[in-house]
Structure formats: C-alpha cells, structure tokens
Automatic annotation (TrEMBL):
<protein>
    <recommendedName>
        <fullName>Outer membrane protein with beta-barrel domain</fullName>
    </recommendedName>
</protein>
<feature type="signal peptide">
    <location>
        <begin position="1"/>
        <end position="18"/>
    </location>
</feature>
<keyword id="KW-0732">Signal</keyword>
Amino acid sequence: MKTLCFFLAALLSASAAAAQNSWADGDHPSLFVLGGFNEMFVQDPGHIFNISFPYTTTAVSGTQTFSGSLKGSYRPEVPMFDVLLLDVVYKRSGYYLGYGLNRQLGNDYAGYVKFGYDYAFPFHGLMLKPGLDLVFFTKREERMGSIDNVNQTVSALGIQSGDYYTVTIDDGEYATYDETYSTDHLDIDYSRSSLDLGPRLTLSTRPFWGKAVLSLQAGWLLPLVQTSRLRFEQVSAHASDPTHLAGHVTLPQNGSVGGPYVGITAGVRVGRVTRS
C-alpha cells in the first residue's frame, strides 16, 4: 500500500510538471471518459436475518409457514468500481454521469448510478476540485426461498399469487401483446436500495501526454432515502419465460449504504463538445 501511494504521488508530481495547459482548452467544453476504483467504509453495513410469515393456499386447508434467510454477510468495506464515467468540463466546472458496480453482500455485484459536479482550483500545478455527488445504489435481489404455486393460489401478507399470470410483451416494432404463463412457484426475494448525497474532494492532474488525466479523491456519502423490501415474484417452469411481480412488502431499514470513501480515477480526453 505504501509503495502504491509513493507511486501515485510521484506520478501526480511528474504530470503536474509536464502539463501546464489549461484544464479545458478553448471556448468549448471538453469530454473525458473515465474509470476508477473506490473503497467505501460503511458505518452500519446491515445484518443477515431470517424471516417467517404465515400463508395459505387454495389446495391445502389451514395455514402454513414460510421461513427464509439471507446468505453471506454484508461488507463493512465496500469496493466500488466506476465502470464508465462521462465528464464534461467547461472552464473550471465539471459535470459527470456514470455507472458502476459494488459489492455490498457476499461476492455478487450490484449496480449504482452517479451524478456529480465539481469546481477546479489551481493547486501547485494540479487541480483541487471540491464537488458534490448524488449516487443511486440500485436494488439487488437476494433469494430467501420459494413457495409452490402450481395449480393453486397463494395468499401471504396481503398479496395473492394465482396459478397463472399475464405479461405484456413488446414485439420490438412499436406493438405490444399480452402473454399468459402458468405459475410454477412464487419466489420470495429481499432487495435493498439507497439514494445518497455527499461531498467529494479531488486532487487531479491537468491533461498530460496530450489527453490523459489521473485523480485521487475522498468523500462521504450520506443516505437520503433507503428502501428495504420483500418481493413476491411469479415464475413459470421455463427459465426463458418472463416473470411477474405479484407484489412487495416494505420492511424496516436494514443498515445504511453510506460512509466515507477514498479512490483513484483515470481517463482520457476524447474531444470537445460543439454545437452542430
């Protein structure tokens, strides 16, 4: 880790000495394509839990009980991979939109979408850029179990799942039609999503070697809105068939997808944004 820090510091210093051109040359905005890696230190990562609830079916008299649990564990340190960031820089202002992947639970990935703004101040040949990020961590569904739904209607927590379901299909030519499928089973999935807002401070090179940029950053994401839900998904016996959401139940908040983070970003300037 120390070797990496020394290498990054040396690269920042060398590129600062080599690049004295402006952050965005000319009167037109510059477009940068970036990628990066961040490590977020989650303050309250969430917990694995078991859940059980009563349900009834039309094929069996009386009440039955569903029991399910999450697998794995929530990570206190969440790696975040900025797969693609598009950064439009005009004079000293930067506006970007991007998509990435993170690991909150186990080794599987969930996606996130981020929007951001920053303003650049010259700093000893580099650019110091305070900014603000808005990040939406999309839901990732975790299977907790299934209920047999063949030739019967399942009723649970105010949700009913019949022995068939109808899905509207888009034929790709601006027309739609309805298709009906026989329900094989009802999947019970858990999902969690979060909308975060937070400050960010970036230390960036000016473009060096003509187009390349390198940045170190640190910030803190604060959850604005979080959802924690059980989803009831109707599934046919054929894996290729579409599924259908029978309903969902909102659960108490489970942890907090947010906290301080540090990271590195690199990319290239691909051109300037001009009006046609």
